[in-house]
Amino acid sequence: MSTRIAFLKGHGTENDFVIVPDPENVIALPPAAVAALCDRRAGIGGDGLLHVVRSAAHPEAKDMAAEAEWFMDYRNGDGSVAEMCGNGVRVFARYLQHAGLVPEGDISVATRAGVKSAHIAKDGDVTVGMGRARLPEGEVTVSVGERSWPARNVNMGNPHAVAFVEDLAHAGDLSSPPPFSPASAYPDGVNVEFVVDRGPGHVALRVHERGSGETRSCGTGACAVAVAAARRDGADPVVTGTPATYTVDVPGGRLVITERPDGEIEMTGPAVIVATGEIDPEWLESSAR
Ligand SMILES: N[C@@H](CCC[C@H](N)C(=O)O)C(=O)O
């Protein structure tokens, strides 16, 4: 009889993940298997999957092993690979603490977008050092039905288009990717955030995530939104020397994002482990065919 495979389920502001601990990187997780695990009817269900691997055991993370013992091999719900997941890093850190693999306090996590630092509070929030935003030049437009909006191109390790709208309902059905132009702005697809103001330093978003559809939160998206809002509001902490903090409401909760005078972005929010279980390896193998 083959060995059963452990999994956990977790979420951060209701961006939910199947967590598969696999320290030595021996579990086969081709895109079809990931999509089957993330399927909400025929699988466990999740917006994405966190494959937990020792950095030294993963070809994409070996070079980061000296700085970070654990690698977040992140996959979208459709099985595609993404560079980074902000809510995922918080949940990943919470899992490591929950499993006794790291102490409370400060840890490092290797990702495809580099090593991220995380501060874990036992029963509270997790704060992640998300690195700096890149703001590629050029005008971008996103559309939903008959409506179009200018969008800010913000790269948080993964690509985002941030559009300020009058009403979040105008974003309509976000299950399919909103069209954007020019196509050259995002050769690998994009996560699209629609944003409204809620008050000074306070915004709310809806998001279409590349590879997952509309989700109830996106951590990198919230960071991209905070940076786009700051620039729109005339604030650039690197220039002014004053940090810019935005509260970002997402359908699944609230994140607080601060851009510091050195350009580094910090994201704080919840990270919850909700269940543990076992995957039937025969089902997993057949789902990959
Ligand atoms: N939910 C994530 C982002 C996950 C990756 C994204 N869908 C992509 O393809 O870039 C977050 O919290 O940042």
TrEMBL record:
SUPFAM superfamilies: Diaminopimelate epimerase-like. It catalyses: (2S,6S)-2,6-diaminopimelate = meso-2,6-diaminopimelate. Keywords: Amino-acid biosynthesis, Cytoplasm, Isomerase, Lysine biosynthesis. Signal peptide: none annotated. The record marks H160, E209 as: Could be important to modulate the pK values of the two catalytic cysteine residues. The active site is at C85, C218. GO terms for molecular function: diaminopimelate epimerase activity. PANTHER family: DIAMINOPIMELATE EPIMERASE, DIAMINOPIMELATE EPIMERASE, CHLOROPLASTIC. Belongs to the diaminopimelate epimerase family. This is Diaminopimelate epimerase. It comes from Streptomyces griseoruber.
